[in-house]
Every structure is written in C-alpha cells, then in structure tokens.
Amino acid sequence: MSDPTTENLKRTPLYDVHVEHGAKLVPFAGYEMPVQYSMGVKDEHLWTREQAGLFDVSHMGPCFLSLEDGIGGGDEAHAKIAALVETLVPSDIAGLKEGQARLTVLLNEDGGILDDLIITRPIGEAAQGSLYIVVNGAVKDADWALFERSFQGKAVLTRADDRILFALQGPKAVDVMSDFFPGCEELKFMHHMPFELNGTSCIVSRCGYTGEDGFEVLVKPEAGLPLVNEMLTDERVKPIGLGARDSLRLEAGLCLYGHDMDPTRDPVEADLAWVIQKVRRERADFPGAERILKARTEGTAEKRVGIRPLERAPAREGTMIQVDGQPVGIVTSGGFGPSVDHPVAMGYVRSDLAGPGTKIDLMVRGKARLAEVVSLPFVPHNYKR
Amino acid sequence: MTRYTQPTTFYTKEHEWVTVHNDLATVGITHYAENQLGDIVFVELPDVGAEFATGDDMAVVESVKAASDVYAPIAGKVVEVNAVLADKPETVNESPREKGWFCVLEIKDGAEIASLMDEEAYKAFCEGL
C-alpha cells in the first residue's frame, strides 16, 4: 500500500541524487524533498559556513515574464515590463541595471505580503522586455495565477519549474563555481550572468539564503544533472538538506514566507521597508501604499525582531512572548543555531519592546524562559558586494 | 513478580530503555531514537520528586529540527536526574545507553515490567520498522 503522505508528491529532477546521497525525504511544498543527508543537520549547517553546501531548490518557482508583443528594444522595453510588475510590488524594478536583481514582496490590496521574490533584469538589448523572477515554492501557483490575471494581454508568463534550480553556498562556493562557470567569480551580490553549458543556456546568480557568499543556478535537467553530480564529487562540496537550510537562514536573520511574514503583515512591521526604494515611496503607486507609508512614518503595533533565548531551551514557532505575565508577541521562527552554538529565534513583539536588549519571557511548555531582543543577523553576512 | 537484584534492561515501543535494579528504574532513549532525532541540543528533565503514570510526558528532547516528548515507560517517582545533560545534551547522542541516561524512577508497580520488551524482542521490533 502506498504511503498516503508521499502520495501525489512531485519529485525534482535531482530526486535520484538525493536518494544516492542517503537523504531523509519529507513532504515539503508539494514535493518530496531532502530534510537532511547522512551527515545530519548540525554538521551540514557547519559545513556550509566553512566549505560549500549544495541545495536543491528546484521546488521553488523560477519563471520568466515577457512582453506580449515581443522582447528586444532595450531600455524602452524594460521600462514597459517594469511598469507592469511594479503594479504588484513596491520595489524600483524600472531602475534595475542590466544583470541586477532585487528582493521584493508581492502585495495584496491592503499592503499585506503575499510572497517574497527576487526579480532580475536580463543582460543584452535583445532580452529586454523580459524579467527573470523566482517566487516561493509553497505559493508559486497562486503567485503565477495572480501574474496571469494582472498582466493578461500585456505579458506572457513562462514557468521554469521543470528545470533544476540549485544553490551552492559557503566560502568555497566561488572557487568551485569558477571551475564550471569561468568568470562567474566577477559577479557581485544580487547580479547574474547567462552561461552556455554543453550547448544549453543557464542562469547563474550570485545570491542565496544562508548569509554566506554563494550562487544559484537555473539549468535544464539534461545539462544540470551531470553538473550537480560532478560538483558533488568535489571534496569541498556536500549536499545540504532543508533542515540546515532553515537553521542557516534563521541565523542570517532572513525571513521564511508563511512564518515570518504573511498576508496579515505589511513590509514595515516585517522590517522589510528597505525593499521600497525612494522613487516608489514618492510615487506611492503600489498596492496598500497608504497603509504602508503611514506605517513607515507613524510606526506599527508590532515589529519583527531577533530573539536570543538566554537559556538553553529552544523556542519554536508559535511560542508566546510575555512581559510581566502579559502577552506581547509571538515567535515565528525558532530553533538552534549551530554556528552560534545557542538557540536563536525571530518573531513579532509590541513595537515599544522592539529595541535590542529588551528582556522578554518565552513561554516554552508553560515555563517562562528569559530571552533578549537582539539585532539581526545572528552571524554576519559574508556577501560579495 | 520477578525481583531484579541484578540490573536488567528492557525497552518500549517508543524507543526508551529501562534498566531495572531492585526498586529503581533508570530511563533513557535508545540509539535508534537518538539517531532518528539527530543532533540533540536540549533536554528538559523532570523535577526530582515528580510522579508519573505510565505514558505521561516525562521529558522533552530538542534536536536542531524539532522537539519530541519522552514518555514515562512505567509509573514511578523521580529520585534522580542526569545533571550532565543540562550543559552537555549531546551526551545523549554520544552515549545513549550509558552517560546519556535521563532519570531514575522509584518503581510504583513492579508488575508493569512484564509489559516491556527484552533486548531480543526490541531488536526484532526495530528490524520490523
């Protein structure tokens, strides 16, 4: 009899690679994904901070959005596609330089966050009028339906989630990557380059979700599978599962959609106001602009903060935060940070308690455990600026 | 009812081990359990003097991934807890059957021991998983 929990789950093109490397597979965002390999979460986490970790993120939502009447046409075409996308996001997409990428958020009409996503402007005149966009796996169908509804007759969406999307993260990632993609070491953080690999075009971006220097590669399975297999023979590279991906991003203070932000939170209370560039604030032409700009000047009831438990007990998602026995907030991500060798968490607290150094109680299994509000990240970012 | 004048170890389906010696039972989790949990970063132990019925939540083990309950394998009163685990929870991974014990219970009802598995039965149980 088939296991009901794995029924109807999709597999990424790297499924066999996971099995070969002893992955423990779990259902995640509709896919059977590796939560860890034989090394274990803690060692995979530490390996990524010291060497290079390879993550299968093919469950995510890479896609291309292109003008309906064709791409090409340089800056004018870019301005046209940017204007469309800017109706849904508050970031300056028109102002992106060729090859540049930006983190932004998809907003509902109230200014609540529907997803976070990375939007990249392609390189070369002939490619202008299209954007490379990566959305979260868990909400990709909803995001893409929103794109299609919003841009009907104006832009065409091409899903690329049948391809391999993998990340190589860590201080050794650049050396490994430059063996396969000579010249990629010149890329700066949040920039990308197209490459040819065995006659197949692929996209190499310098970004990631660990706080470390690293890259993400979008490539078709026929070229990507041999590439990943060869990378994994390199002694600096180990496959890393979702468990370590979560502890790495949490230590790096990076939000996880559906946990640290959701449609009830706006970018200001999520401490993501920096994704809204000045030009967009001045124009105030994005969904929920009124609420968001008011929140920016007048403040919000709650704010997302870093939380450091002062005892050894980790505080997980959903843990109530109290001060003087009164509820003042909730933990939205929490666990153990192997690099800081201590529990780490983030969550929302009443804005008057959001200052670093504020003492709070975390209600773990009915017991108040002392913690402190801290600045994020827990470990410094090592991006190549 | 058998009285165990020599330390004798039994097991539960929840992957706890119980070493019975006269009126006392030392409790921990098995290699299978610690391996499934992965790197253990925190153990919440019961208070000395606490009394548990069989199957009560007795302790909590936190790995990097998640928190898991540890149930009282038999009824009893806690007479000692392993203080080493407060600072070195990884001891449970390193030495689940020796240094990584959780607590010692004063056995309430010796007849309950008959419901536990012996080494051979537990081995067969694990192989069937």
TrEMBL record, chain A:
Keyword vocabulary terms for this entry: Aminotransferase, Transferase
Domain of life (superkingdom): Bacteria
Segments forming domain GCVT N-terminal: 14-278
GO cellular component, one term: glycine cleavage complex
Origin species: Hyphomonas pacifica
Keyword Transferase recorded: yes
Coiled coil regions in record: none
EC number(s) reported in the record: 2.1.2.10
Domain Aminomethyltransferase C-terminal, chain residue ranges per copy: 303-379
Catalyzed reactions: N(6)-[(R)-S(8)-aminomethyldihydrolipoyl]-L-lysyl-[protein] + (6S)-5,6,7,8-tetrahydrofolate = N(6)-[(R)-dihydrolipoyl]-L-lysyl-[protein] + (6R)-5,10-methylene-5,6,7,8-tetrahydrofolate + NH4(+)
Protein name stated in the entry: aminomethyltransferase
Similarity comment text for this entry: Belongs to the GcvT family.
One GO biological process term: glycine catabolic process
Gene Ontology terms, MF aspect: aminomethyltransferase activity; transaminase activity
Binding residues annotated for substrate, in chain numbering: 216
The keyword Flavoprotein is annotated on this UniProt entry: no
UniProtKB/TrEMBL annotation, chain B:
Record's keyword annotation contains Ribonucleoprotein: no
Coiled-coil ranges (or none): none
Modified residues (N6-lipoyllysine): 65
Keywords, sorted A to Z: Lipoyl
GO cellular component, one term: glycine cleavage complex
Pfam families, A to Z: GCV_H
PROSITE patterns (UniProt xref): BIOTINYL_LIPOYL (PS50968), LIPOYL (PS00189)
Keyword Thylakoid: no
Cofactor note: Binds 1 lipoyl cofactor covalently.
SUPFAM superfamilies: Single hybrid motif
NCBIfam families per record: gcvH, PRK01202.1
Family: Belongs to the GcvH family.
Known partners and oligomeric status: The glycine cleavage system is composed of four proteins: P, T, L and H.
Function: The glycine cleavage system catalyzes the degradation of glycine. The H protein shuttles the methylamine group of glycine from the P protein to the T protein.
HAMAP family (alphabetical): GcvH (MF_00272)
Protein name: Glycine cleavage system H protein
Organism ancestry: Bacteria, Pseudomonadati, Pseudomonadota, Alphaproteobacteria, Hyphomonadales
